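User: Can you write out an input/output pair for a complex, sequences first and structure second?

Assistant: Here is one pair. Inputs:
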Amino acid sequence: NAGVTQTPKFRVLKTGQSMTLLCAQDMNHEYMYWYRQDPGMGLRLIHYSVGEGTTAKGEVPDGYNVSRLKKQNFLLGLESAAPSQTSVYFCASSYSWDYRATAAYEQYFGPGTRLTVT
Amino acid sequence: SQQGEEDPQALSIQEGENATMNCSYKTSINNLQWYRQNSGRGLVHLILIRSNEREKHSGRLRVTLDTSKKSSSLLITASRAADTASYFCATYQYGNNRLAFGKGNQVVVIP
């Protein structure tokens, strides 16, 4: 299994440009997440999905949109990039939130996408 | 609100020594997890401790949880150079479909 993969690995955008980050997982996980990581800030949740066709806002959703058309894919879009969106973006997935299964809570992370907006 | 605040932020130790880092949180939780992040990589799950557990072991890792103080500690025994990484605690609150991560502890193990 490849686990969680992200494309692209690096990207440089100019202010106002748009792009889509793709996350794919082959573990048949129900839940998927997009985080951003900035120095000294830890990980902050942007959006997440609890299943195919569903999305929900996280802690810092402004300026981002997401879609989960297929269970294995979770897309993160930036419609009009801003320098404040310069960050490392991580996708993660987890099986479920079944309280009876400890393994359900564990999140599996992709390798990250380093985005610079100039 | 940000859950999970690790302390100290940076730790430098000699190989073979033990490394301890702490995490505090603010609200009731279902479980608390620790993750490791090597430089330039994604996070890797290390260990999970449920709110009704007080201590858990996994290899060289020992995690404690004190729900009365809303705090947890991660102990890495007999550290190795390969343990050099950032360590994050993350809490899962009841009724919340997500983890809240702390800012991370950077640990450097000197060979």
